[in-house]
Amino acid sequence: MITSKILSKQKKIKHGFFNRIGGKSSGIYKSLNCGPGSNDFKSKIKENLKIVKNRINKKSKNIFLMHQMHSNKIFYINKNFKFSKKKIQADAVITDQKKIPIAILTADCAPILLYDKKKIMIAAIHAGWKGVYKDIITKVIKFMLNKGCKEKNIIATIGPCIQVESYNVKVDFLKKFLKKDKKNKVFFKDIKNSLHFNLPNFIKSRLKSNKISNIEAIKIDTFDDKNNFFSARRSLRLKHADYGRNISIIMIN
User: Fold this and answer.
1) Of 136, 195, 226, 230, which is least surrounded by CB within 10 A?
2) Within 10 A of 23 (CB to CB), how many other CB atoms are there?
3) CA torsion, points 184, 181, 69, 5, in degrees to nearest 10?
4) Structural domain tally of the chain?
5) Within 13 Å of residue 172, how many CA atoms lie on the same side as its CB?
6) Residue 190: inside a domain, yes or no?
7) What is the pLDDT of residues 145-202, one digit of tens each?
8) Distances (CA, A) of 81 to 32, 50, 77, 126, 146
């Protein structure tokens, strides 16, 4: 489990970014695959989620997971929330409720964990390029502000994700970003005559444009096999039929 330096200083929350080590799955899902959307055995995924929950808090409720769609949809857990078998379709979750671990599943996309240390409110965002492009970060922060949070009190951590060195893209991808804003050119880099996209920096810029200044980016590349994270891109390159999902989690004690 990897932790954020700035979030670790906060005593009222627990959090963690998990890689693929320490679970029960096998084969291409070895070993801590937490993705119910994968074709792994459901019993193994359940066991893996229990391992993660116990690392955060054995007495907490079930981990809240969404059906992620690369959208800008957000979901708020209030005091009346009850777990059901039907998955919520969204890519970000916000809550001020205690003992409900909220989590994001990724396999190269970025997990973002937010915490307002005065209002005691948390959020977890699934931040692939599509969601960030569709302004999911702005939506989450505006929602938090409407609930009484303040920009100066919000801490943001961008978890392990695909880094610029591994994220090669096509020219059409660049054009899409330039059409939205010419200034987006700064998030693209030429590496050995190949066009690359800097997802963490793009995310950071969206956080900063929403006046969030207390930001940490954990510079671990999920694509690089030695870091032991599941990676959709790497699996595709290896011609695997599927891939596991990494989990990132945050909870108010």
Assistant:
1) 226
2) 24
3) 40
4) 1
5) 0
6) no
7) 999 999 999 999 999 999 999 999 999 999 999 999 999 999 999 999 999 999 999 9
8) 28, 21, 6, 21, 19
